[in-house]
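Annotated sample (chain length 198).
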Amino acid sequence: MASGTGTNDGNNSAEIVKQYFLRDPDGYYLEICNCDVLTQYCLGSTQELAGYDQGVALNLQEAALFVHLADKLAHSAARMQKELEELCVELQGRPAEEVAARLGCKIRADQVDEEKLKKLLTRRSVYGDICQNETEEGVREILQLTNNHVPTAMKVMEIRGYGDRLFQPPAFFEEGTDKVKPEAFHVAPHKKASGYPV
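Output written by the structure step:
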């Protein structure tokens, strides 16, 4: 590799690998990366590599199938979002047991899955996370009501928190010695033209 062509040898940001990690509601991460810069740095010009293919080649029929599937998924997602928004309007602030029952939860777990509970409680320290709306006991009850199914537990919390979200800013050290925990505050989401919050 010639001097000045490495990913960190120049000051040109086009040669630097950029990675973004997004955390999904279940605690997993999605990586977005311009990894082609790293591929070129490690392997050189990929055009010179026999059999190397960075993408998936689709013929017209396969591409049309994927477009059709994507369209169906988009319509399904929009329908599910609308149904959730309607449930939010109907059940906002209602007891967790009532919300879970309305979502079809029939089996209550005998015990809380402690690992899932720990992850949800960790989310309570993330500024603006929906888990901040619930107390530790509330999160425990919701997890039991939903038979330890985290996506459904998140829906219960979202419905209960509709119209009144709690935001707890993170604690910080003032002058490096005194730990300060700012007061939490409530925010009502603003509404878009449809009347649902954004």
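Annotation: The first strand starts at residue 19 and ends at 23.
Annotation: The mean pLDDT is 82.
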